[in-house]
Design brief:
With about 400 residues, the chain is mainly alpha-helical. It is about 80% helix and about 0% strand. The protein is built from 17 helices and no strands.
Length: about 400
């Protein structure tokens, strides 16, 4: 039983790694898509291309509980992985596009598939960690999202490498092959069938309480996740354009900064996972937004190119565990709504991503705001989260549910 539990967890972590890789391919390649030979993408199109991802992820996570009750964990996990395959194929097509219109349509298609894949896969994975490890949910959730961060940190480096080798479009064939291996592994092992084991049947019972009746502070947790999504999406999705266009740094520096962001985001999650086993996780939760605000404050003022990578590394470390801890703490404080909070947390962060990426891209293209003002907004979000993080964790944590 213990061996199967560990093997299932390892497969969920592997899927999270690949999902993280998918999430940062388009942001890492934004400087390529804006070049004449690769479609000449505008700021408005870049922001809008994320809208299908955000809307589809919000849609599937809002209705996740209903889908879960009707189809079960296994089919939803499989559909999520299928969405990632569609994303990889569409990004490959986008990298081969020769006109702006063709590029934009393929990016819309890619992000639509990514939203469905991300929403389903991460919702099932979050719920699995809560159900398989009720007493250690915080540590396992941070570990899961740590592997997602490892994948995300590698994408900018691979994009830069294949671009410098002048074979960037062909590299997507490697990504598709990796996806095929993951899909085969999931098909053969069926990790989401853990509810068939008698040891977990009680934990797998669906929530009987409708999401609309969640307590006020459960909604505040979701609001915090939304605000965090705004800050993280601005910091990550606009990093390459901000550092190259606003700061005048090279694309190599931008790629290394974005990679450092995800590497240290991953490192922070791993360290926080161990720390969560030995200390009050509420302290960790309160420190995260303080680091986010401080890092963005320094980012706005830097002029030396050599400082970009360490500042982004600090930002990644500060962002690392806020979202997984939000899920873990909210389900611990409000255990009766664990299914709803595990999925609505994804909806909240994707709504924040939509605001920080799509809306700000449209406003920048309309020349209503400058990209520097977009990063000022991210800093303001960090300041607001300092207050919210303390407010929602004032009370002592209850025992595991």
């Amino acid at each position: 039983m213990a061996h199967r539990k560990v093997s299932r967890t390892a497969i969920f972590f592997t899927a999270a790694f690949f999902q993280g890789f998918c999430l940062t391919i388009i942001p890492a390649a934004s400087f390529i898509f804006k070049q004449p030979g690769f479609g000449l993408l505008t700021d408005r199109q870049y922001g809008l291309c994320f809208l299908p991802m955000n809307l589809s992820a919000v849609f599937v996570t809002i209705f996740f509980k209903n889908l879960l009750g009707r189809f079960g964990r296994g089919p939803l996990l499989n559909w999520g992985v299928a969405g990632l395959g569609g994303y990889m194929a569409a990004v490959w097509a986008a990298s081969c596009a020769h006109t702006n219109h063709e590029l934009f349509l393929w990016l819309l298609c890619a992000n639509l598939n990514l939203g469905i894949g991300f929403g389903l896969l991460i919702s099932v994975s979050n719920l699995a960690m809560v159900e398989l490890y009720p007493a250690q949910r915080d540590a396992l959730l941070m570990g899961l999202h740590g592997f997602l961060g490892i994948g995300a940190s590698l994408a900018p480096l691979t994009v830069e490498f294949f671009y410098r080798q002048a074979v960037w479009p062909l590299s997507h064939g490697i990504y598709l092959a990796a996806w095929a291996l993951l899909a085969l592994l999931l098909f053969l092992t069926r990790p989401a069938d853990y509810c068939l084991d008698s040891a977990f049947t009680g934990a797998c019972a669906l929530d009987l309480h409708p999401a609309g009746r969640m307590p006020f502070f459960a909604w505040v947790f979701l609001g915090a996740i939304f605000i965090y999504g705004v800050a993280e999406s601005i910091t990550g999705n606009w990093a390459t354009l901000y550092l190259t266009h606003e700061k005048g740094f090279t694309f190599q520096t931008a790629a290394h900064a974005l990679s450092a962001f995800w590497i240290f985001l991953t490192l922070g999650r791993i360290l926080a996972a161990f720390a969560a086993l030995r200390m009050d996780v509420r302290i960790l939760y309160r420190l995260s937004p303080l680091g986010i605000f401080t890092g963005l404050f320094f980012l706005l003022g830097i002029r030396q190119e050599a400082l970009a990578v360490p500042v982004y590394a600090a930002l990644g470390f500060s962002c690392s565990y806020f979202f997984p801890l939000s899920v873990g703490l909210s389900t611990q404080y409000h255990g009766r709504w664990k299914d709803a909070l595990s999925s609505l947390g994804i909806a909240a962060i994707m709504a924040g991503v939509s605001f920080g990426t799509t809306l700000m891209g449209v406003l920048q293209n309309m020349q209503r705001v400058e990209i520097s003002q977009t990063f000022m907004l991210a800093a303001a979000c960090g300041a607001l989260l300092i207050v919210i993080a303390w407010w929602v964790t004032r009370n002592r944590l209850p025992g595991p549910v």
